[in-house]
Automatic annotation (TrEMBL), chains A, E:
Entry keyword Metal-binding: yes
Gene Ontology MF terms in the entry: 4 iron, 4 sulfur cluster binding; carbon monoxide binding; iron ion binding
Protein name: [NiFe] hydrogenase metallocenter assembly protein HypD
Keywords attached to this entry: Iron, Metal-binding
Coiled coil spans: none
Family per similarity comment: Belongs to the HypD family.
Top-rank taxon: Bacteria
UniProtKB/TrEMBL annotation, chains B, F:
Alphabetized GO MF terms: carbon dioxide binding; iron ion binding
Family: Belongs to the HupF/HypC family.
InterPro entries: Hydrogenase_HupF/HypC
Highest rank taxon of the organism: Bacteria
Taxonomy of the source species: Bacteria, Pseudomonadati, Myxococcota, Myxococcia, Myxococcales
SUPFAM superfamilies with a match to the protein in the record: HupF/HypC-like
UniProt-listed GO biological process terms: protein maturation
One family name in Pfam for this protein: HupF_HypC
Official protein name in the record: [NiFe] hydrogenase metallocenter assembly protein HypC
Organism whose genome encodes this protein: Hyalangium minutum
UniProtKB/TrEMBL annotation, chains C, D:
Matching Pfam families: AIRS, AIRS_C
Domain PurM-like N-terminal span(s) in chain numbering: 50-162
InterPro entries cross-referenced by the UniProt entry: HypE, PurM-like_C_dom, PurM-like_C_sf, PurM-like_N, PurM-like_N_sf
Domain (PurM-like C-terminal): residue spans on this chain: 174-325
Name the record gives this protein: [NiFe] hydrogenase metallocenter assembly protein HypE
GO biological process terms held by the UniProt record: protein maturation
Domain of life of the native organism: Bacteria
Family to which the UniProt record says this protein belongs: Belongs to the HypE family.
Classification of source organism: Bacteria, Pseudomonadati, Myxococcota, Myxococcia, Myxococcales
Length: 364, 83, 348, 348, 364, 83
């Protein structure tokens, strides 16, 4: 596949690796923001090629990991209503709420369906006029335009049996929360390339300056990641803290204007609680009043009942780069992908699950 | 999160909601093109959750290799410097 | 090593009800089998961890196996549920070194199923049985109320004859054995996904469903001392290797670049965020053979049209039972774990 | 004689979709089997009209059979679906003169099934297998989405060994043969109905489900040259006799007053307007034996606790193939026809 | 079972048979009205014991046989509505309407359930408040009080999701239609014992007198039937035409007063079309206006679309005693229980089905 | 039609809708007794579609046999008359 295979060459990768070995003089800790990046790193074993002392931490860029228990409990309550068709991306189905997950309400009789796109949920609403179709809108700035378009189209087409449980979150406030932590271990960021295709790079300048941290907008293929790491390390070694764009083939500094306009029209910035991390001001997107009729929370009157996270789970520390998964006492014993205590053990991009699935044995 | 895959626009359907057929290697899927009004057949776009979110810039696509070249030259230079 | 992989100490079943994942061919399913079907006292159930049981009948060795087929949609590019029901069970017999001879067919029909569809499925089974040289000798039909099934479920059980001198079993696997795969992986799973409601995409991929009898017979004809075989069905190549590694008490190391995956399959996997190593096949197998016979075995496989893409993909190593790992194309390593449930499209 | 009973000229299938009656064990089901499963060219399917197929395996004779179990409710007085799944398949083996040896078990589970219920069913299968002296040697589990099954379906297939010299087959039936039944009929069906939603009534009736192995072995031990056997399951005694009469090409005449029906069963049948001769059993069989051996055979059956109520109920006569008639207690005659579908309570 | 076994004794039956042989001097044709009687006659082979020339005809007393195609089409239309739970006695499920039967709409997805009693349908309505439960109220005077009570209780309990598709029919008008036919073959009637437990015997006096035909209210066991036949034959041989009561243990001449009162409260007499026979004035029971809210026809607005009966079917003649089933050209060839052309081939009490199932072969 | 079966009333539950348990040999079912207000435990009732529609009159129940007796006597009388 074009624009994929070219970025996976072993020879080029090794030249990057050599260059990294040559460039690094001190230990550095980088965090890749996006779960998709985490996935590529473990899939290709990139972390194992890095110079000793150069550490990658998995960031909070996995919506499955950061969606709050409270929001999940709302989702479970709505999905359990008779007549509701609850549509979600696949990975959300295994995330535990206070007591259950979507798979278990499905097993108990709820009509929960996996969709590839919010537009699939919309199409379902058109096909099933007698049912209430709800889309569980999780995800970052990359996904929010898709949700926005679905709601917008629902209004345009007069589909009143469609609604959105809006749980979108924003990356920059989370990065700031990580940076502001006094125990922070992160020296530099690989920013999430696809988020930046939508939002551009402007938000990162102030962060880089305020916290004096290099931020490199990075893609998802091995060469992208290796280049992003190299660019970040180069800045650190040189004592710079700038925003740079590794992922130039997809990211333009101002981002995607039509998508931003749609986000603006449909959503407004709201406070959100992040699982493990806690409340972060202005870190989410909620539906504007004009779309109140398509707001599932309003339609179904689910009230916030203050969901409980598992007390033993250290995923907040994992997500902020303060703890590596195997350092959590529950890891691999009481907490496994079959019996996850935290969301980071659920998603295949979750830091704990990635460690468990790909790195559990030492050595080949 | 944010699984985005580059595919080639095969055809577009203009209308209130711009749609198109996009090829990912030998796999073809219908995709919403509303957010890439500039994308035309032959262009590559990055697709996420059924939406094209960005047109691939063929020039930008070469930068990785250019960077690698530079690294090589730097290394040679450095190598050249050392003796 | 995690205690989860230690069979003497399985984690308690967390779920009080059956989840889809209990049928996904991954870890939950293994747990279900161990704790509900095999657990104490004196095991109720299948005592052989194998595609088929091999048991005595008078002076002969009989291979028995069973599988139910519940695939949706029932017709997909390159095959249908009827073909699968014949090939799948034939293949399980073949994986124990048996010559498949007889099949039974148990139909569970949902009231309202189109008669024409049933006819098509039966015609397909007839054709597949002919192709495999097996006879459908006994059958059963049950009809359940509308809404109590999903159109059509088929169970086929198979009986085969194990010729003298053959011994194919996970416990014969040895460190150093070469690991072969009989063809490129993942076509079946992608073909089925491509026509699944709400996910549909266009692709030239056709199901790889086919009988493995000629490939296995080719190995034996070539004089290969086949140690173990497994068809790579639910859960794909990675799951089949995990099963064999667990049951044989060994580790397996694969070379990513050696695993044949065709381009359309890998494109679909990129799009959906799937790992092709976990995508189902219905006409592929892995063979564990002694290292010195690896090339002979490979040549034997490649000599048959169904085996032209056969490849040597890795080897058995000393190490913890059940560890399957992969050397990536970049030289890193990663585990190929048993999945918790079915692989879901990582769309987000 | 009606053309419908003339197998060379079956009426065309009227239904374009599957109806419940296609699984009811009656005429529609026979039609489905003949026209979809057995029809031309070269029959796909079971070539032997018999509870089991008897086929060669090397130098031995192998009996094979399969059945799916979909009973609701799954637990009923005197048994459960797990027991049925073992006994039912064991009994089909035994009906061909085989010694049952091995079973496979294929589970189709509906997402959301209580794990505890599955455990109970499996425990029951274990116990039943132990009792029958058979081993469950291979299995399969599939899980389908909620709403795509009805909790739990089980397929069991059975393999048995037919000892030298035994030949039990409908084609051996001869005019003059005595017809025996191994016990009173209809208990199973009434036990299940008594706990069915919307029909519930109180009754001491327990399912008669039990293995028939000891009774058949008793017949052979007594030196009886058993011509044919059939267990009286779906459709009850009358359907089993219809099947045998059709397959053996003979008529059968029963004496109503000789057919054992216990009092509670006949009371329930009066209430619901059912004919006990069509009510299912799961531990009864009919045996066709040479008239001169009838008394010996009866004594052999009665010598076992499961056969104490065995009775001689009629005889084979010359006449059209498949005609089963009954001399009523008043001396009139009536046909015992194959049912069109399942017997429905004649409540009105 | 008490009051059952006593009436099945072979010895007594043979004494009755002997008495009949002794008493009969000429051919007589009797009609048993009720399908339940038909059932007992074929079950015990009573017809085969009678003197030659004494013929039994099966009457119209099988609601499955006489419910009009039009009513069936309404039932099929209602059952096919989404959300409806359609409850019926078992045998109605196989009766063909113009194009389909209830089993096939069930197979196509309708929720059709078999009940033992209308009260079971009522209980279902209580258990499924979100569904519309409809009871298909077929049957004669025996069954109508059960339907009446169900509607009455629905009103009392305020169950508005229950309704009745009323198709009840009355026996005396049908007997009169048979008697009025100038080709009639019937010399005497065995009246339906259970109908008379409810309605008593008063309606039959005028008929017996007007048409000079003996009418014997008869039970359902072999000795009941044999006695009823004997009583009828005795009248015929003696040239009498009176109403007599064979079934004294269950039938009182005035009938069942509370049941009649309930019928009166809930139903009114209406015209009805009988399948095969055609319209008969004042031959049915329909819901009174006070129960209009529980009237399924009204609730679902199904209009009479004039259902078509199969042109080839002679069931009208069969039901009126003008034709014996084997005399119908379609019998056993184009018309069988698997492919019934008429309703009389469907019910196990239907005359054609009874012949087919029990008498198809001649001789044992 | 009109399948009616005699059963013995075991117990009654009075109320807005009179109900009771009725035994049919060894089978027991709940039945509506609203139409047989006179029926008490020990009585037999004829049950149809879940309703008792009539109380069985034990005296009336003997009439069949009485009729048969009379027939026999008549036959004897006739037989006696003949020679
Ligand atoms: S291993 Fe489990 S418990 Fe520990 S941080 Fe990760 S998800 Fe939480
Ligand atoms: S045999 Fe069939 S076609 Fe003829 S009258 Fe009877 S139901 Fe009608
Ligand atoms: Mg297998
Ligand atoms: Mg198998
Ligand atoms: Mg298999
Ligand atoms: Mg069967
Ligand atoms: Mg279904
Ligand atoms: Mg059988
Ligand atoms: Mg069988
Ligand atoms: Mg069977
Ligand atoms: Mg299997
Ligand atoms: Mg269900």
């Amino acid at each position: 596949m074009r624009y994929v295979e070219e970025y996976r060459g072993a020879e080029e990768a090794h030249r990057f690796v050599q260059a990294l070995h040559a460039r690094v003089t001190r230990p550095w800790t980088l965090m890749e923001i996006c779960g998709g990046q985490t996935h590529a790193i473990v899939r290709f074993g990139i972390d194992q090629l890095l110079p000793p002392g150069l550490t990658l931490l998995h960031g909070p860029g996995c919506p499955v990991c950061v969606t709050s228990v409270e929001t999940l409990d709302k989702a479970l309550a709505i999905a359990s209503r008779p007549g509701v068709v609850f549509c979600s991306f696949g990975d959300m189905l295994r995330v535990p709420g206070s007591e259950r997950d979507l798979l278990s309400v499905k097993a108990a009789g709820a009509d929960v369906r996996i969709v590839y796109s919010p537009m699939d949920a919309l199409a379902l609403a058109e096909r099933l006029p007698g049912r209430e179709v709800v889309f569980f809108a999780v995800g970052f700035e990359t996904t929010a335009p898709a949700s926005a378009m679905a709601v917008h189209e629902a209004r345009r087409r007069g589909l009143r049996n469609f609604s959105l449980l809006a749980a979108h979150v924003l990356v920059p406030p989370a990065m700031e929360a990580i940076l502001a932590d006094r125990n922070r271990r992160v020296d530099g960021f690989l920013a999430a390339g696809h988020v930046c295709t939508i939002m551009g790079m402007e938000a990162y300048g102030p962060l880089a300056r305020a916290y004096r941290v290099p931020i490199v907008v990075t893609g998802f293929e091995p060469l992208d990641l290796l280049q992003g790491i190299h660019m970040c390390v180069a800045q650190l070694e040189d004592g710079r803290a700038a925003v740079e764009n590794q992922y130039a083939r997809a990211v333009r500094p101002p981002g995607n204007a039509p998508a931003q306009a749609m986000l603006q029209a449909v959503f407004e910035v709201v406070h959100r609680t992040w699982r493990g991390i806690g409340p972060i001001p202005s870190s989410g997107l909620g539906l504007r009043a004009a779309y109140a009729d398509w707001d599932a929370e309003r339609k179904f009157g689910v009230s916030a009942v203050g969901g409980r996270e598992d007390a033993e789970c250290r995923s907040g520390s994992v997500l902020r780069g303060l703890l590596k998964p195997p350092e959590c006492p529950a890891f691999g014993t009481r907490c496994t992908p079959e019996t996850p205590l935290g969301a980071t053990m659920v998603s295949s991009e979750g830091a704990c699950a990635a460690y468990y699935r790909y790195r559990r044995f030492t050595g080949p | 999160m944010c699984l985005g895959i580059p595919g080639e626009v095969l055809s577009t359907v203009e209308g209130p909601l711009r749609m198109g057929r996009v090829a990912f290697g030998q796999v073809i899927k219908e995709v919403c093109l509303a957010y890439v009004p500039e994308a035309q057949p032959g262009d590559f776009v990055v697709v996420h959750a059924g939406f094209a979110i960005s047109r691939v810039d063929p020039e930008g696509a070469l930068r990785v290799f250019a960077y690698l070249e530079e690294l090589g030259e730097t290394a040679e230079k450095l190598g050249g410097q050392s003796p | 090593m995690s205690t989860l992989l230690n069979r003497s100490c399985p984690a308690p079943l967390k779920h009080s009800t059956i989840q889809l994942a209990h049928g996904g061919g991954g870890r939950l399913m293994r747990q279900l089998i161990e704790e509900v079907f095999l657990e104490p006292p004196p095991a109720l159930a299948w005592t052989e961890r194998h595609d088929s049981a091999v048991v005595p009948l008078g002076t002969e060795r009989l291979a028995l196996t069973t599988d139910s087929y519940v695939v949706t949609p029932r017709f997909f590019p390159g095959g249908d549920i009827g073909k699968l029901a014949v090939y799948g069970t034939v293949n399980d017999l073949v994986m124990s070194g048996a010559r498949p001879l007889y099949l039974s067919a148990g139909f569970i029909l949902e009231e309202g199923l189109a008669m024409e569809e049933l006819r098509r499925v039966v015609a397909s089974m007839r054709e597949a049985a002919r192709e495999c040289g097996v006879r459908l000798v006994t059958g059963d039909t049950k009809v359940v109320d509308r809404g109590k099934a999903d159109g059509l479920f088929i169970n086929t059980s198979g009986a085969g004859h194990v010729p003298e001198g053959r011994s194919v079993h996970p416990r014969r696997v040895r460190p150093g054995d070469a690991v072969l795969v009989s063809g490129d992986v993942g076509q079946h799973g992608i073909a089925v996904l491509s026509v699944r409601e709400g996910l549909a995409f266009e692709t030239p991929v056709q199901s790889d469903c086919s009988p493995l009898t000629p490939l296995v017979e080719a190995l034996f004809s070539a004089g290969v001392d086949v140690h173990a075989l497994r068809d790579t069905t639910r859960g794909g190549l990675a799951s089949a290797l995990n099963e064999l590694a667990l049951d044989g008490g060994v580790s397996v190391l694969l070379e990513e670049t050696s695993v044949p995956v065709n381009e359309a399959v890998s494109g679909a996997c990129e799009l959906l965020g799937l790992d092709p190593l976990y995508v189902a096949c219905e006409g592929r197998m892995v063979a564990f053979v002694p290292e010195p016979q690896a090339e002979v075995a490979l040549a034997a496989l490649r000599g048959h049209p169904l085996g032209v893409a056969a490849a040597r993909i890795g080897r058995v190593t000393e190490g913890p039972a059940g560890r399957v790992s992969l050397r990536t194309r970049l030289g890193g390593h990663r585990l190929l774990d048993l999945l918790s449930g079915e692989q879901l499209p990582r769309i987000c």
